[in-house]
Amino acid sequence: MAASILALVVGSSMVALNQLRQLFLRGEEGTEVLREATLFIEHFRNDFQNSVSTADLKISSEEISFPVYRDFDGNTEIASYRLDGKSIQRKLGNSYNRVIVN
Fold it and tell me: Could you tell me which residues come within 8 angstroms of residue 79 by beta carbon, excluding any fewer than 6 positions away?
């Protein structure tokens, strides 16, 4: 489980850093890539800290999803991170997919 999560974080970071390297040469667009990478890491860290330790962790080559606590009453919802081409999308519960790294 930990190895899969680490692989997702490292892979996503590599995508973000590769985009940073490519866009850094273009000037101010590098700031946008840094913002996206920071946003991804912050969301993933927060979701991982609030995760429920059950067997509901689902990992594939393109997606990782796991339950997280939604409130203090112990209600949970599913946090999903999906790698779609070069972008990373996050979905929390029944909300829409939000592109974090484009």
Answer: 47, 51, 65, 66, 67, 68, 90, 91, 92
Report the distance separating Cα 61 and Cα 43, nearest Å. 20
pLDDT at 91 over 90: yes
Q: What is the pTM of this model?
A: 0.66
Cα–chain center distance at 65:
10
* Structure-model confidence comparison of residues 56 and 7, the more confident one: 56
Domain count, the chain: 1
Name the packing angle between helices 29-49 and 2-24 (round to 10°).
Answer: 170
Nearest to 37 by CA among 96, 88, 91: 88
Question: Domain residues for 92?
Answer: 2-101
3-state DSSP call for residue 72? coil
Which of 88, 90, 65, 67 has its CA nearest to residue 11?
88
